[in-house]
Specification:
Layout (H helix, E strand, L loop, with lengths): L7 E4 L9 H11 L6 H8 L5 H6 L7 H10 L3 H16 L20 H11 L7 H11 L3 E6 L24 E4 H4 L6 H17 L11 E5 L2 H9 L3 E4 L5 H12 L6 H10 L1
Parallel strand pairs: 1-2, 1-4, 2-3, 4-5
Helix pairs in contact: 1-6
Protein backbone atom coordinates (compact mmCIF):
# COMPACT_ATOMS: atom_id res chain seq x y z
CA UNK A 1 0.00 0.00 0.00
CA UNK A 2 1.40 3.40 -0.98
CA UNK A 3 1.75 6.06 1.75
CA UNK A 4 -1.08 8.54 2.19
CA UNK A 5 -0.61 11.78 0.27
CA UNK A 6 0.28 14.43 2.89
CA UNK A 7 -1.73 17.56 3.50
CA UNK A 8 1.30 19.68 4.45
CA UNK A 9 4.77 19.97 2.93
CA UNK A 10 7.29 21.51 5.31
CA UNK A 11 10.58 22.79 3.88
CA UNK A 12 13.92 23.85 5.19
CA UNK A 13 15.28 26.75 3.10
CA UNK A 14 19.10 26.68 2.79
CA UNK A 15 20.25 23.60 0.89
CA UNK A 16 16.67 22.70 -0.03
CA UNK A 17 14.83 25.62 -1.65
CA UNK A 18 17.92 27.75 -2.26
CA UNK A 19 21.55 26.88 -2.94
CA UNK A 20 23.21 25.45 0.13
CA UNK A 21 25.46 27.73 2.19
CA UNK A 22 27.45 24.55 2.87
CA UNK A 23 28.67 24.79 -0.72
CA UNK A 24 30.31 28.12 0.11
CA UNK A 25 31.98 26.49 3.12
CA UNK A 26 33.26 23.58 1.03
CA UNK A 27 34.57 25.91 -1.67
CA UNK A 28 36.36 28.00 0.98
CA UNK A 29 37.95 24.91 2.55
CA UNK A 30 39.15 23.52 -0.77
CA UNK A 31 40.55 26.88 -1.93
CA UNK A 32 42.52 27.37 1.30
CA UNK A 33 43.69 23.83 1.93
CA UNK A 34 41.46 23.34 4.98
CA UNK A 35 40.27 19.74 5.42
CA UNK A 36 36.76 19.53 3.92
CA UNK A 37 34.21 19.25 6.69
CA UNK A 38 36.24 20.98 9.39
CA UNK A 39 34.24 24.21 9.50
CA UNK A 40 30.89 22.43 9.77
CA UNK A 41 32.39 20.16 12.43
CA UNK A 42 33.61 23.20 14.32
CA UNK A 43 30.22 24.94 14.18
CA UNK A 44 28.55 21.76 15.41
CA UNK A 45 31.00 21.32 18.30
CA UNK A 46 30.26 24.85 19.52
CA UNK A 47 26.58 23.98 19.90
CA UNK A 48 24.38 25.03 21.61
CA UNK A 49 25.99 28.32 22.65
CA UNK A 50 28.34 29.19 19.81
CA UNK A 51 27.94 32.57 18.18
CA UNK A 52 26.38 30.96 15.09
CA UNK A 53 23.74 29.24 17.21
CA UNK A 54 22.99 32.38 19.21
CA UNK A 55 22.51 34.36 16.00
CA UNK A 56 20.16 31.71 14.62
CA UNK A 57 18.08 31.99 17.79
CA UNK A 58 17.95 35.77 17.41
CA UNK A 59 19.82 36.32 20.67
CA UNK A 60 22.59 38.51 19.27
CA UNK A 61 22.82 40.99 16.37
CA UNK A 62 25.06 40.77 13.32
CA UNK A 63 27.71 43.20 14.47
CA UNK A 64 31.47 43.29 15.01
CA UNK A 65 31.11 41.31 18.24
CA UNK A 66 29.31 38.53 16.36
CA UNK A 67 32.01 38.23 13.71
CA UNK A 68 34.78 38.30 16.31
CA UNK A 69 32.99 35.60 18.29
CA UNK A 70 32.29 33.51 15.20
CA UNK A 71 35.98 33.66 14.27
CA UNK A 72 36.92 32.62 17.81
CA UNK A 73 34.52 29.69 17.60
CA UNK A 74 36.24 28.55 14.39
CA UNK A 75 39.68 28.92 15.97
CA UNK A 76 39.43 26.70 19.05
CA UNK A 77 42.68 24.67 19.31
CA UNK A 78 40.96 21.80 21.14
CA UNK A 79 38.36 21.40 18.38
CA UNK A 80 41.07 21.50 15.69
CA UNK A 81 43.04 18.87 17.58
CA UNK A 82 39.98 16.69 18.15
CA UNK A 83 38.96 16.96 14.49
CA UNK A 84 42.42 15.96 13.23
CA UNK A 85 42.70 13.03 15.61
CA UNK A 86 39.31 11.70 14.51
CA UNK A 87 40.16 12.30 10.86
CA UNK A 88 43.46 10.44 11.21
CA UNK A 89 41.85 7.56 13.08
CA UNK A 90 39.20 7.25 10.42
CA UNK A 91 41.77 7.29 7.62
CA UNK A 92 44.01 4.74 9.33
CA UNK A 93 41.14 2.68 10.72
CA UNK A 94 42.94 2.55 14.06
CA UNK A 95 42.23 3.36 17.70
CA UNK A 96 45.45 5.18 18.54
CA UNK A 97 45.73 7.31 21.68
CA UNK A 98 45.29 11.08 21.05
CA UNK A 99 48.45 11.93 23.02
CA UNK A 100 50.64 10.03 20.57
CA UNK A 101 49.46 12.13 17.61
CA UNK A 102 50.26 15.68 18.72
CA UNK A 103 53.18 16.04 16.32
CA UNK A 104 51.01 15.03 13.35
CA UNK A 105 48.50 17.85 13.86
CA UNK A 106 49.01 20.70 11.34
CA UNK A 107 48.81 24.38 12.28
CA UNK A 108 45.37 25.79 13.10
CA UNK A 109 43.98 27.51 9.98
CA UNK A 110 43.29 31.24 10.04
CA UNK A 111 39.67 31.53 8.88
CA UNK A 112 38.26 34.84 7.69
CA UNK A 113 34.94 34.31 9.43
CA UNK A 114 33.31 37.55 8.29
CA UNK A 115 34.17 37.01 4.62
CA UNK A 116 33.03 33.38 4.84
CA UNK A 117 29.75 34.35 6.49
CA UNK A 118 28.80 36.81 3.76
CA UNK A 119 29.89 34.39 1.05
CA UNK A 120 27.56 31.79 2.57
CA UNK A 121 24.70 34.27 2.69
CA UNK A 122 25.36 35.42 -0.88
CA UNK A 123 25.42 31.92 -2.33
CA UNK A 124 22.22 30.96 -0.55
CA UNK A 125 20.32 33.85 -2.15
CA UNK A 126 20.03 31.84 -5.38
CA UNK A 127 16.99 29.63 -5.84
CA UNK A 128 17.71 25.92 -6.28
CA UNK A 129 17.21 25.02 -9.97
CA UNK A 130 15.34 21.81 -9.11
CA UNK A 131 13.37 22.56 -5.97
CA UNK A 132 12.23 26.10 -6.79
CA UNK A 133 10.31 25.12 -9.96
CA UNK A 134 8.83 22.20 -8.00
CA UNK A 135 7.67 24.60 -5.29
CA UNK A 136 5.95 26.79 -7.87
CA UNK A 137 4.15 23.76 -9.31
CA UNK A 138 3.03 22.68 -5.84
CA UNK A 139 1.79 26.19 -5.08
CA UNK A 140 -0.11 26.41 -8.36
CA UNK A 141 -1.80 23.06 -7.75
CA UNK A 142 -3.47 24.29 -4.57
CA UNK A 143 -3.38 20.73 -3.24
CA UNK A 144 -1.04 21.27 -0.31
CA UNK A 145 -0.32 23.63 2.54
CA UNK A 146 3.26 24.80 2.00
CA UNK A 147 5.21 25.73 5.12
CA UNK A 148 8.85 26.46 5.92
CA UNK A 149 10.87 25.83 9.07
CA UNK A 150 14.33 27.30 8.70
CA UNK A 151 17.31 28.17 10.86
CA UNK A 152 17.75 31.81 9.94
CA UNK A 153 19.62 34.98 10.89
CA UNK A 154 18.18 38.48 11.16
CA UNK A 155 20.09 40.89 8.93
CA UNK A 156 20.50 44.55 9.87
CA UNK A 157 17.44 46.51 8.70
CA UNK A 158 19.51 48.61 6.30
CA UNK A 159 21.21 45.62 4.67
CA UNK A 160 19.99 44.57 1.19
CA UNK A 161 19.52 40.97 2.37
CA UNK A 162 16.82 42.11 4.79
CA UNK A 163 14.53 43.05 1.89
CA UNK A 164 12.01 40.58 0.48
CA UNK A 165 12.37 40.79 -3.28
CA UNK A 166 9.64 39.98 -5.80
CA UNK A 167 11.02 36.50 -6.55
CA UNK A 168 11.91 35.71 -2.93
CA UNK A 169 11.25 32.05 -2.19
CA UNK A 170 9.56 33.01 1.09
CA UNK A 171 6.59 34.37 -0.84
CA UNK A 172 5.61 30.85 -1.93
CA UNK A 173 4.83 29.62 1.57
CA UNK A 174 1.53 29.76 3.42
CA UNK A 175 3.51 29.75 6.67
CA UNK A 176 7.15 30.74 7.20
CA UNK A 177 8.77 29.94 10.55
CA UNK A 178 12.16 31.53 11.20
CA UNK A 179 14.36 30.32 14.06
CA UNK A 180 15.73 33.81 14.75
CA UNK A 181 12.21 35.19 15.17
CA UNK A 182 10.85 32.42 17.40
CA UNK A 183 13.96 32.00 19.57
CA UNK A 184 14.53 28.32 18.85
CA UNK A 185 16.54 26.51 16.21
CA UNK A 186 16.59 23.03 14.76
CA UNK A 187 17.18 20.41 16.06
CA UNK A 188 15.70 21.58 19.37
CA UNK A 189 12.74 19.19 19.88
CA UNK A 190 10.58 22.12 21.04
CA UNK A 191 10.75 23.80 17.64
CA UNK A 192 9.01 20.85 15.99
CA UNK A 193 6.16 21.03 18.48
CA UNK A 194 5.95 24.77 17.85
CA UNK A 195 5.81 24.15 14.09
CA UNK A 196 3.14 21.48 14.50
CA UNK A 197 0.91 23.79 16.53
CA UNK A 198 1.31 26.65 14.04
CA UNK A 199 0.51 24.32 11.14
CA UNK A 200 -2.53 22.98 12.98
CA UNK A 201 -3.77 26.52 13.51
CA UNK A 202 -3.38 27.25 9.81
CA UNK A 203 -5.13 24.11 8.54
CA UNK A 204 -7.99 24.74 10.95
CA UNK A 205 -8.36 28.26 9.57
CA UNK A 206 -8.38 26.84 6.05
CA UNK A 207 -10.99 24.23 7.00
CA UNK A 208 -8.67 21.35 6.06
CA UNK A 209 -8.54 19.51 9.39
CA UNK A 210 -9.49 20.17 13.00
CA UNK A 211 -6.54 18.37 14.57
CA UNK A 212 -3.91 17.56 11.96
CA UNK A 213 -1.65 14.64 12.87
CA UNK A 214 2.12 14.92 12.29
CA UNK A 215 1.96 11.93 9.90
CA UNK A 216 0.20 14.29 7.47
CA UNK A 217 3.35 16.43 7.27
CA UNK A 218 6.40 15.68 5.12
CA UNK A 219 9.52 17.61 6.14
CA UNK A 220 12.48 18.20 3.81
CA UNK A 221 15.88 19.15 5.24
CA UNK A 222 19.54 18.73 4.33
CA UNK A 223 20.77 17.89 7.85
CA UNK A 224 20.23 14.41 9.24
CA UNK A 225 19.98 15.51 12.86
CA UNK A 226 17.15 17.90 11.98
CA UNK A 227 15.28 15.09 10.24
CA UNK A 228 15.81 12.69 13.14
CA UNK A 229 13.96 14.98 15.54
CA UNK A 230 11.22 15.64 13.00
CA UNK A 231 10.72 11.88 12.75
CA UNK A 232 10.54 11.65 16.54
CA UNK A 233 7.80 14.28 16.38
CA UNK A 234 5.89 11.95 14.05
CA UNK A 235 6.59 13.66 10.71
CA UNK A 236 7.62 11.91 7.53
CA UNK A 237 10.90 13.15 6.07
CA UNK A 238 13.00 13.51 2.93
CA UNK A 239 16.77 14.02 3.15
CA UNK A 240 18.13 16.53 0.64
CA UNK A 241 21.79 15.80 -0.03
CA UNK A 242 24.25 18.50 -1.07
CA UNK A 243 24.17 18.89 -4.85
CA UNK A 244 21.40 16.31 -5.24
CA UNK A 245 18.15 18.23 -4.89
CA UNK A 246 16.92 16.59 -8.10
CA UNK A 247 16.74 13.26 -6.22
CA UNK A 248 14.72 14.88 -3.43
CA UNK A 249 12.29 16.29 -6.00
CA UNK A 250 11.90 12.78 -7.43
CA UNK A 251 10.96 11.54 -3.94
CA UNK A 252 8.56 14.44 -3.60
CA UNK A 253 6.94 13.44 -6.90
CA UNK A 254 6.23 9.97 -5.52
CA UNK A 255 4.78 11.33 -2.28
CA UNK A 256 2.62 14.04 -3.86
CA UNK A 257 1.73 12.03 -6.97
CA UNK A 258 2.59 15.06 -9.09
CA UNK A 259 5.05 15.76 -11.89
CA UNK A 260 7.47 18.29 -10.41
CA UNK A 261 10.78 18.09 -12.28
CA UNK A 262 11.30 21.12 -14.48
CA UNK A 263 11.85 20.17 -18.17
CA UNK A 264 14.24 23.12 -18.65
CA UNK A 265 16.41 21.96 -15.73
CA UNK A 266 16.47 18.46 -17.20
CA UNK A 267 17.50 19.83 -20.61
CA UNK A 268 20.23 21.96 -19.02
CA UNK A 269 21.57 18.93 -17.17
CA UNK A 270 21.67 16.83 -20.34
CA UNK A 271 23.49 19.65 -22.14
CA UNK A 272 26.20 19.62 -19.44
CA UNK A 273 26.77 15.86 -19.77
Amino acid sequence: MSPTVPKVLLFDIGGVCVVSPFQAILDYEIARGIPPGYINYCISRNSPDGFWHKAERGEIPLDDAFFAGFKADLSQPWIWKEYNIRKSQKEQNSQGEPESMNAAIPPLPDIDAEWLFWEMMSKSRAADPWMYPALKRLKASGKFVLAALSNTIIFPSDHPFSRVEENDVRKIFDLFMSSAHIGMRKPDPKIYQYALEKIRELVREKGIADNLGPENIVFLDDIGENLKWAQKAGMRTIRVHLGKTEKAVEELEQITQMSLLDPKSLQDQKARL
